[in-house]
Structures are given as structure tokens and as C-alpha cells.
Write a structure and sequence with these properties.
Elements lengths: L1 H21 L6 E8 L5 E8 L9 E8 L15 E5 L7 E3 L7 E10 L4 E4 L3 E4 L9 E8 L4 E7 L6 E10 L6 E5 L6 E4 L8 E11 L8 E4 L6 E3 L9 E2 L6 E2 H18 L1
Antiparallel strand pairs: 1-2, 2-5, 3-4, 3-6, 6-7, 6-8, 9-10, 10-13, 11-12, 11-14, 14-15, 14-16, 17-18
Helix pairs in contact: 1-2
Length: 271
């Protein structure tokens, strides 16, 4: 009887060690993107690359400064740095508001975990708020089509005179490489982008090109308005590995399957 009790105790210790081993330190890079969304606001997007597995208490703090002397060395200890708590879901940006028009904002994000016992700090990124008197396309929407292999982008016209065309950019979510398309159909404020991957999430943004008063009466001057914020279109359904979303961490099915199988094997040995 005593040996069986000791076997159960050893089993529980092994299970505890296995569960603890899933929670390690925060590793990888904290990647951030900073984008102006109006003449007084900046959105900050961030994610940990590669995604952290097994750490469920990650929180984010956003530090920012305006018109800092040296953006490359800006960090949380820089005099005058302001801070705000950021959303714990990577899909949701932290929005910094109340900034003067045409102001450069420099941002650093820190990811923290009590269970992991360490932090990750991003490199600094900057963007400039729009100047006064500009307008952005609104109600930008994205719909997946053709079994997720195409997207339809729609938008509402901004408040501006003499719009001549629109630029549409799309990219894989969080990536730097973008593809730019143009539309001159001012009556159909939409565009379909096809030949996409059916298991990849994309994001899009739109801007208007406006006829500006020319300096030379014989020359047509075109000026581009500000970009809208990035809008994401997720895959409609899971056709391969489906991430389990919730909180700051994404855990894939394979992690749970491996952990569950290991636990069953240990329990079988104990009994």
C-alpha cells in the first residue's frame, strides 16, 4: 500500500514538473508597429515573435514621448517618457490620443510576466501625426471571399474635394512588406484582391488621392491624403492548424495534444 502511495506522489511531482516546464521565460522579439490614425492619435500594434507558449499572464506597458531628441535611444527611463497600459490581445492596438498635429511620437513597449519572471522590451519606433485639414477614408471593411482566397475591401469617401483615385495597400498581418493597388472608379468604393493564401490573415488600408491647386495651370498636381488605420480580415474557418485565441498568448492545438498525451502516459505508469 505504501509503495502505491509513493508511486502516486512521484506521479504528481512529475506532472507538476511537466506543467511547470511549459511556463518558461519570455523569449524572442517584441515587435511593434506605430501608425498615425489622425492628426491627434497614434496606434501601436505589438506581438512577440515567436509566439510565447504556456505563459498566460503577459501584460504590456506602452512608453511614449513626443518630438524626442534621439528617437533611436528612447526607452522607459528617458526623461519625460509617458506610460499607459496596453491591451493584452495582440489584435487590439494601444491608441495614444491628445497629441498635437504634425508631432512625431516615439514609442517603446515592454512585455512583462510575473510567472516567467522577466520582461521583453521592444526597439523604439516613431511616426508623425497628420497635419491639420486632412481627411481619411472611413468605414474601411474587409470580407473574405472564394474560400478565403480573396478579400473584398470597401470604404467610405473622405471629406475632400476633387478626389481622383484611391490607393489600397495590403499585407500579411504584422509584416513590413506591402503591396499597393489603385482604383480610379469613384462610383464603386471597393476592390477585390484575389490569389491569396486561404490560411493567412491579411490587413488593408486605404487613402485618397486628391487634385491639388497646381502652381502651373497646365500641370495637374495630385496630393495623397493620409492612410486609414490597418484593418484585419481573419481566415473564416480553420483549414489547417487553428490557433486558440485569448489573452496575450496564442497556444496551438499541437501543444495541448503533446501535453495531454504526456500526462496520460505518466498517469498510466503510476497506476
Amino acid at each position: 500500500m505504501e509503495s502505491k502511495v509513493m508511486g502516486v506522489v512521484r506521479c504528481l511531482l512529475v506532472i507538476s514538473a511537466l506543467l511547470y516546464s511549459v511556463e518558461g521565460q519570455l523569449t524572442g522579439r517584441l515587435v511593434i508597429t506605430v501608425e498615425a490614425v489622425s492628426n491627434s492619435a497614434i496606434n501601436v500594434y505589438y506581438f512577440i515573435d515567436p509566439q510565447v507558449q504556456g505563459i498566460n499572464d503577459v501584460t504590456y506597458t506602452v512608453y511614449y514621448g513626443t518630438d524626442v531628441a534621439d528617437p533611436a535611444t528612447f526607452d522607459p527611463s528617458t526623461p519625460g517618457a509617458m506610460e499607459m497600459a496596453g491591451p493584452t490581445t495582440p489584435e487590439t492596438p494601444a491608441t495614444i490620443t491628445g497629441i498635437d498635429p504634425a508631432t512625431t511620437v516615439t514609442v517603446v513597449v515592454v512585455a512583462s510576466s510575473v510567472s516567467a519572471g522577466n520582461n521583453l522590451t521592444s526597439s523604439s519606433q516613431s511616426d508623425i501625426t497628420f497635419g491639420g485639414g486632412v481627411s481619411v477614408p472611413t468605414m474601411v471593411g474587409v470580407q473574405r471571399l472564394d474560400g478565403n482566397k480573396a478579400i473584398r475591401v470597401t470604404w467610405m469617401a473622405p471629406t475632400a474635394d476633387k478626389i481622383v483615385s484611391y490607393d489600397i495597400q495590403y499585407r500579411t498581418v504584422g509584416q513590413e512588406h506591402v503591396i499597393t493597388l489603385s482604383s480610379t472608379d469613384l462610383n464603386d468604393l471597393s476592390i477585390v484582391i484575389d490569389s491569396l493564401s486561404d490560411v493567412t490573415n491579411y490587413e488593408v488600408r486605404v487613402r485618397a488621392n486628391i487634385e491639388a491647386p497646381p502652381g502651373d495651370p497646365n500641370t495637374l498636381a495630385i496630393t495623397s491624403g493620409p492612410w486609414s488605420a490597418w484593418v484585419e480580415s481573419e481566415v473564416n474557418d480553420c483549414t489547417s492548424v487553428c490557433p486558440i485565441r485569448g489573452g496575450a498568448v496564442t497556444l496551438h492545438n499541437g501543444v495541448f495534444l503533446t501535453l495531454f498525451t504526456s500526462l496520460l502516459s505518466i498517469v498510466a505508469l503510476c497506476f
